[in-house]
Design goal:
Blueprint (H helix, E strand, L loop, with lengths): L4 H6 L13 H7 L2 H11 L20 H26 L8 E6 L8 H18 L7 E6 L7 H18 L8 E6 L4 H10 L2 E4 L11 H7 L3 E4 L5 H8 L5 E2 L4 H7 L5 H6 L2 H11 L12 H8 L7 H18 L3 H13 L6 H13 L12
Parallel strand pairs: 1-2, 1-4, 2-3, 4-5, 5-6
Helix pairs in contact: 4-7, 4-15, 5-6, 5-12, 5-14
Amino acid sequence: KQLVPEFYSMWPEKFNNKTNGVTPRRWIVACNPELAKLITDAIGRRWIADLDLIWELEAFQNDPGFLERYRAVKQANKQALADYIQATMSETVDPSSIFDVQAKRIHEYKRQLLNLLHIMHLYLTIKEDNIDIGSPRTFIFSGKAAPGYQTAKLIIKLIHNVAHVVNTDPAVNRQLKVIFLPDYRVSLAERLIPAADVSEQISTAGMEASGTGNMKFAMNGALTIGTLDGANIEILEHVGEENIYIFGLTVDEVAALRPSYQPKEYLEKDDRLKRVIYALRSDRFSPAEPGIFRSLYNSLMSPGDSYLNFADFSPYVAAQQAIAKDYQEPEKWSARALMNTARTGFFSSDRTIKAYADEIWGIRAQIQEKDLW
């Protein structure tokens, strides 16, 4: 209606959308074979060609034996990723810690910076306040920046600097680790996604068209922390609000706030945020390169935090605190993770393709079940 109003007024029926999907053959069967085997042992193999059938797993949400096996699959995947990190980066991570993963293109609107502000807050909480953060955390980033996107490259640099400070500090690194896995690609995603406990989908509301990474993580039993943006909205509808961590401004609230947004107002009323921003400005994470992150600081303070990191900082921290608390009850956490797997049938690309065939192309879609397992 806004981009091509004349075209829309002539043929409104030509404008419609179909929610993206991902193939369970790659994103469960191929990349997480032990989970695929567990599912098949429980409900048979027909789910591989008809993911809607995966809802039958809901029958096991209160089955301690099944949840223990489901949890063991996740733990084995985490150990495999920890071994990979050790082998490729010579960095030791605790596979019993929360694996919190943000793997996607590096962009300001995707808010890797908000994730970093929270990590810096946790670091300062442990280091300066001598407060235990509850559940140990391993924050894992991966993604690439466009060649000419200097701010995105600087965010990658900040991730590396924060990782160095955190990971080399013996007062902190038993509770907190930060990892950046380079050269993000499908084969790396196939290692990361099955091992994730938490899926970071924290774009500024209204900026994400849809996304599919969030679907892959949910299928593999990661709980989403996210804004009401893109496919997060539909994941919420399908998995239920008790099985996802939604925080922050909505699309309408973002639009209403932008004209009068003053990031300094949020800074002044939140001492945690104030301390983090002071640490960024004072080169706490770049002592050998003074001023290197000055442009990031300036982008947050003036002209004014275009992607509303400050506005969403407090609710994001609150959601992360809820995650730390909930993770300490492993059986309940596993039941909620299982509900993510069981309720993601809608996000199969088979459904997307069938919708295109039925409603746009006017052809008959056929799915042939071959020897997939």
